[in-house]
Amino acid sequence: MTSIEHNLQQVRERIAAAAARCGRAPEEITLLAVSKTKPVSAVEEAIAAGQRAFGENYVQEGVEKVTTLAAHPELQWHFIGPLQSNKSRQVAEHFDWCHTVDRQRIAQRLNDQRPTHLPPLNVLIQVNISDENSKSGIMLEALPTLAQEISALPQLRLRGLMAIPAPEQDYDRQLAVCLQMAAAFRALQQNYPDVDTLSLGMSDDMEAAIAAGSTMVRIGTAVFGARDYARTSQQ
Ligand SMILES: *Cc1c(COP(=O)(O)O)cnc(C)c1O
């Protein structure tokens, strides 16, 4: 067994255990393997171990992997990094999902640039739930308006919400923030029947995220090992 295969098995067990503790079925939670800074060979190992959904943060690096692995139509590619306007076309043309939509202008660009032969791009609205230092994500008060704007765009499909809570070690405080996101998610579902995805939870807070109702955890380090940022020149 390779170490990535072993890690994936352990992460799947962590997800199943966290789900069991709160009476949820493990199939309700998708594992998104975050492969940023990792080589194609690492993604191939994960594919061999049954992983299908991958998350990338940097547009150019992500597009390289998507195109290199085009022989695997079963893969789902998620863009989860900050998105600049001048890179939106690459995301619209190569990815299946974008988790970081936080303004109308970028939603409109993704819509206009999404090739019509592809299905609509699945989008999540990024909410700034607890991180005062982050410039990414909208405040909860702005959510209804942006959701309405996105739902009017035919080449986008609003699937839910995403958040990157401020780092926090205490479980109860992690849970409190995750529960705020879960409440916003349920409220959104009342108005938009396609909404089924709450992208919440990373290596250090996935248990609290799952307890709150996350449907997608984004796990990098626990699957692929520590990242070496010196190897990438981007961003
Ligand atoms: C890097 C990253 C992750 C994965 O983080 P780990 O701590 O390595 O699990 C998840 N979500 C986003 C948005 C990221 O940028």
TrEMBL record:
InterPro entries: Ala_racemase_N, PLP-binding_barrel, PyrdxlP_homeostasis. Its cofactor is pyridoxal 5'-phosphate. Signal peptide: none annotated. One of its GO terms (molecular function) is pyridoxal phosphate binding. Pfam families: Ala_racemase_N (PF01168). The modification N6-(pyridoxal phosphate)lysine is found at K36. It comes from the Bacteria. Residues 7-227 form the Alanine racemase N-terminal domain. Keywords: Pyridoxal phosphate. Pyridoxal 5'-phosphate (PLP)-binding protein, which is involved in PLP homeostasis. Belongs to the pyridoxal phosphate-binding protein YggS/PROSC family. Monomer. This is Pyridoxal phosphate homeostasis protein. It comes from Pantoea phytobeneficialis.
